[in-house]
Design goal:
One of its GO terms (molecular function) is structural constituent of ribosome. With about 190 residues, the chain is an alpha+beta fold. The protein has two helices and ten strands. The chain has a domain of about 120 residues: SH3 type barrels (Roll), CATH 2.30.30.30.
């Protein structure tokens, strides 16, 4: 009770009431100057979901992972619900180290109609698989193997299958992949 009386007397001495400064700034004569912090204010950023985050370098470009497979490689799926299936890689995503394999990991997508009178569709699309869940595959010897690197006599660095010794990177394979890619682009354009 005595503390309350002392507080009221101090308010009357300052000629302020408890309601006079609610919602208003204090005058500089009453309030001591605030010490400015040396830290910069933190800008508000949108928090991304765990699956949307990409690790970035200082220049804000995403960190690209090194992968043991390339477009056009024949691979065997070694884990997941498509385990044991064999297919060819059609696309790489280096920022999250995943691949799309032809006719593997098919997901159902429901498409809305774009125009009036056109019905909607249910289509199958190929979803990405993490690159650690695929292994290079030899069609000739029907065996999956890890990849190794060696330098040939002419100084060319190539990838090869460790179990079979079969060289994967050859000019014939790349020319075949490029021709198939051009065919699919022409058919998609027409």
């Amino acid at each position: 009770m005595a503390a309350m009386a002392a507080l009221q007397s101090s308010f009357t001495a300052l000629s302020l009431s408890s309601n006079s400064f609610l919602g208003q700034r204090f005058s500089p004569s009453i309030c001591p100057p605030l010490v400015k912090s040396t830290e910069k204010p933190c800008p508000i950023t949108v928090k991304l979901k765990r699956w949307e985050r990409k690790k970035c370098k200082p220049n804000s470009l995403p960190v690209l992972q090194k992968m043991h497979v390339k477009v056009g490689d024949t691979v065997k799926v070694i884990s997941g619900h498509d385990k044991g299936k064999i297919g060819e890689i059609t696309k790489l995503f280096k920022h999250n180290s995943s691949v799309i394999v032809k006719e593997i990991n098919l997901k159902t997508k429901h498409m809305k109609s774009r125009e009036e009178g056109e019905p909607g569709q249910i289509i199958k699309i190929e979803a990405p698989i993490h690159s650690s869940n695929v292994m290079l595959y030899s069609k000739e010897q029907n065996v999956a193997s890890r990849v190794g690197h060696k330098i040939l006599e002419d100084g060319k660095r190539v990838r090869y299958l460790i179990k079979t010794g079969e060289i994967i990177d050859s000019a014939e394979n790349w020319s075949r992949v490029i021709k198939e890619r051009e065919k699919t682009e022409v058919t998609a354009a027409s």
